[in-house]
Amino acid sequence: MSVTSDTRAPLRRPDRFFIDGEWAAPSSGAMIDVIEPATEELFFQVAEAREADISAAVAAARKAFDTGPWPRMSHEERAGYLRAIAAAIGRRAEDASQIWPRESGILYAAARAGIGGIPKTYEFYADLATDYPFETPREPVAGGKFGLLVREAVGVVGAIIPWNAPMALIAHKLAPALLAGCTVVLKCSPEAPGAGYLMAEIAEEVGLPAGVLNVVTADREVSELLVRDPRVDKIAFTGSTAAGRRIASLCGERIARFTLELGGKSAAVILDDMDLGRAAEVLSSAECRLTGQVCASLTRIVVTRKRHDELVEALSSTFSQVQVGDPFDESTQMGPLAMRRQRDRVEGYIAKGIEEGAVLATGGGRPKHLDRGFFVEPTVFANVDNSSTIAREEIFGPVLTVIPAEDEEDAVAIANDTIYGLNASVFTNDVDRARHVARQLRSGTVGHNAFRMELSMGFGGFKQSGIGREGGREGLLPYLETKTVILEDVPTDYRTK
Q1: From residue 153, how far is each of 72, 142, 236, 479, 482 by CA, in Å?
Q2: 17-262 fold
Q3: What InterPro entries does the annotation carry (predicted)?
Q4: Does residue 37 sit in helix, strand or coil?
């Protein structure tokens, strides 16, 4: 059974950019084709930013921060806009849910569930307006009578968004930035710009002051101009580790602030008391999420050698039964990859795994019942060496690698033997044992018997999986600078506190 799919993008002005509170004509006639991954057909076209467009967006954000009303409002006043944005997203939830599957391949049902939770992010940061310590009195010890530790907006933010979950990733950058008093240039992915345009329309609807949010779409070469621009105080980036290294180096040249949420090669450590059938069901189901195009995916499955074959059999059974197809069909359990080059990438890694001696237990090809679309079969490799390419590099597709370990200590060592450290999970029936192993894993998040991403507490990575955190109270800190103020007397408004 299929649900309704709107074949038109529900956007008013994708041929323009949203700059300084207006729909600005692009500096050139260049357009980007957005291709629907399930059909390989054109979904819509969007204007492609050039150097002049990026510069205009930055200029608008700079002016809005330096001389506009936004940073000079109280946190409570800005929180009012965040609540209005949350309500507007709720009203546009169906539009966002139609766009996401047709840009990135996520299931429509999953898109609806995911979009439904996004207003809560804006509401969460709005709530912080009243209880976050933006100004804290401190007693100075080196002179002066009264001290204040003040947390102020970092300034102009360049937010660079990937294609896999843009609406959510925008929220976890835009909401804290706006509460802090920052202004933002939002740079959308060429493959999935729809969420950015929706947010521009919402900014216009709620009356966000001119220049506070500016939205453009550009490829990597032009996007680098945003990173280099000295008028931009901070870059907030989600994407590949390779791109993150480049951004960090460019920001380092001018000491710009940055946060990076990067790639992963996350391990699931299966301890010997865990039921393997249950573990296989959990892991297979989790890897269907966005067809494995999730940075935190648990793709390295580490299990003791004596249980390796049994787990491979269980994974092969559950994963091979996943129904692959149309994201708008209610019977579908996994949709397509987001684009042709992504399917080519995944197929290349599958070929590399076979070439390097891993055992292909199931999958590895294209679904035979689908003659178009960027689909790939759910794939499991067995007897994978942790030094092999498919165990070391992020595939970003539905490919699980099962790695044998000698014992628990060896399993933890294998899990940590990676340049990444974004996510992990421990599978055991003993909660104390799970906590013990979790504390040994070098990872920003560690789940128990499940795939977990808990953005309400803060999400980010160790090692080359990133710098900084997004979500929760931790996610506000990167948009603030700390200032120390020493006064000769107690200010009037503190004398009664």
Answers
A1: 10, 27, 14, 6, 9
A2: Aldehyde Dehydrogenase; Chain A, domain 1 (3.40.605)
A3: Ald_DH/histidinol_DH (IPR016161), Ald_DH_C (IPR016163), Ald_DH_CS_GLU (IPR029510), Ald_DH_N (IPR016162), Aldehyde_DH_dom (IPR015590)
A4: coil
Nearest to 101 by CA among 38, 22, 160: 38
Place of tokens 């010890």: 141
Residues with a catalytic annotation lie at 261
Domain positions in the chain are 17-262, 266-448
Q: What is the pLDDT of residues 65-113, one digit of tens each?
A: 999 999 999 999 999 999 999 999 999 999 999 999 999 999 999 999 9
| Architecture in CATH for domain 266-448 | 3-Layer(aba) Sandwich (3.40)
Task: Report the distance separating Cα 401 and Cα 266, nearest Å.
Answer: 11
- CA pair distance 14, 43, nearest whole angstrom: 12
Q: Name residue, tokens 């900014």.
A: 203
- Closest to 267 (Cα-Cα) out of 421, 393, 431: 421
Q: pTM for the complete prediction?
A: 0.95
- CA–CA dist 190, 9 (Å, integer): 15
Whether 198 contacts 223, CB under 8 Å: no
Query: How high is the mean pLDDT of the chain?
Result: 96
What would the mean pLDDT of 124-134 be, rounded to a whole number? 97
